[in-house]
């Protein structure tokens, strides 16, 4: 399938929906490329935006939550010809599997593949990803300067420094009018005081982002600050600087994934704002594990299953899934453990760099053995008042990333360990994807055992345990 957009003529090829499930005439919804400033995929309800993917960063669409957990199964190809036509095409990795994209009559893009065993199509991915999240996935649910979180009640809230533009509508659950600033930005320095920025972690970035060339986050901040129209910025490693001018629309809390968004506020709104958080709760992460579901993707109703199509993001996949294609509930527990350690440390497993260790997991394990685990904690959440809570979060994270599935807790046990006030946690053993002490190659060969090395990630010998 190929989608195109011509900047000169403002024309595009679109994926169109049926009028209903049984009526193939043209329906209300269309899907296609929006390439105004950054490349995104949009679904429109008539002329109005209904859903968007967020910008393409060269690897994923950063407004699609599942892409942070699982790398795209398809290969995305982008081309821009001399005539001003920008095209996005999809090619399927496994050409032996019959796959296609459709836009349903109610505005949902589905990626389907043919299941020979069932003799029917199986949904591999959909734009409205889950029943709990889909209400916030709809475009602009909370209006301008409003943020949506489907796990909160009500789901919409004004960003800090903003207030509802219509209190009566907001109180009645109509958030479309959005929010307005409490204090006007001053733009520039007056008596040594200038506007500042407040960080909102793990967000789906707003619509209408503009990309700027920038070497680092601080330069991105300076570019925004010197532009009086700039209301927000974000910096994504490997992609660069994004800024937003004017109003912000279609913001969503993507915890624990997403992008850190910096909102410009008057200095008086920041008050005595420090970078260190004044609260931390490991239990706030519990709902995240319900979004996982490796086993559900492959529709196995057994305790574990096997697949020949390993899809996902290395660094989050469990060892048995990445190397052998075996998946179970414990695969999701492993991914959750990685995310817990990322949240506590403020560092990404996939982009972790350190002189002595080569991954966040091995670094955490090294500090644990050295009784220096406090060094792992992100300074922005460090604090003596909730240090025990953070340490519990780290220990649960390490228990969740044990190398062998049988050594990891179940999802129910993870929830129990996190939510219980008093519980004695077992001590973790060495995590998966760390450098393990193994029998030397010569000794293994003398014992008649064959050794394997997979992608230089870990080395193991087949033998009885």
The structural class is alpha+beta
Number of helices: 11
Strand order of the largest sheet: 13-12-20-16-21-18-19-17
**Total discrete domains:** 4
Distance between the termini: 49 Å
What is the CATH domain class of the largest domain? Answer: Mainly Alpha
Give the percentage of residues in beta strands. Answer: 25-35%
Largest sheet: 8 strands, mixed
Tell me what the CATH architecture of the largest domain is: Orthogonal Bundle
Q: Uncertain segments of ≥5 residues (pLDDT<50)?
A: 274-278, 295-302, 435-465
Per DSSP E runs of 2 or more residues, the count of β-strands stands at 25
The helix content, as a percent range, equals 10-25%
CATH H-level name of the largest domain... which superfamily? Answer: Transferase(Phosphotransferase) domain 1
Rg over CA atoms, rounded to whole Å, is: 24 Å
What is the fold named in CATH at topology level of the largest domain? Answer: Transferase(Phosphotransferase), domain 1
Arithmetic mean of pLDDT: 79
- Which descriptor suits the 3D outline? globular
Compact description:
One of its GO terms (cellular component) is plasma membrane. The chain has eleven helices and 25 strands.
Written account of the structure:
The chain has 465 residues and is of the alpha+beta class. It folds into 4 domains: 2-129, no CATH class; 143-270, no CATH class; 282-434, Transferase(Phosphotransferase), domain 1, CATH 1.10.510.10; 435-465, no CATH class. The chain is built from 11 helices and 25 strands. It has helices at residues 134-137, 167-171, 217-225, 267-270, 294-297, 319-324, 329-345, 360-369, 387-400, 411-419, 441-446; strands at residues 2-6, 11-12, 15-18, 26-34, 40-45, 48-52, 74-80, 85-92, 99-103, 109-115, 120-126, 146-148, 156-158, 162-164, 179-181, 196-204, 210-212, 230-236, 240-245, 251-253, 259-265, 304-306, 326-328, 451-454, 458-461. An 8-stranded mixed beta sheet has the order 13-12-20-16-21-18-19-17. A 4-stranded antiparallel beta sheet has the order 2-1-8-7, with no helix packed on it. The protein has a 4-stranded antiparallel beta sheet with strand order 3-4-5-6, with no helix packed on it. Helix 7 packs antiparallel against helix 9. It starts with a strand and ends with a strand. The model is unreliable at 274-278, 295-302 and 435-465 (pLDDT under 50).
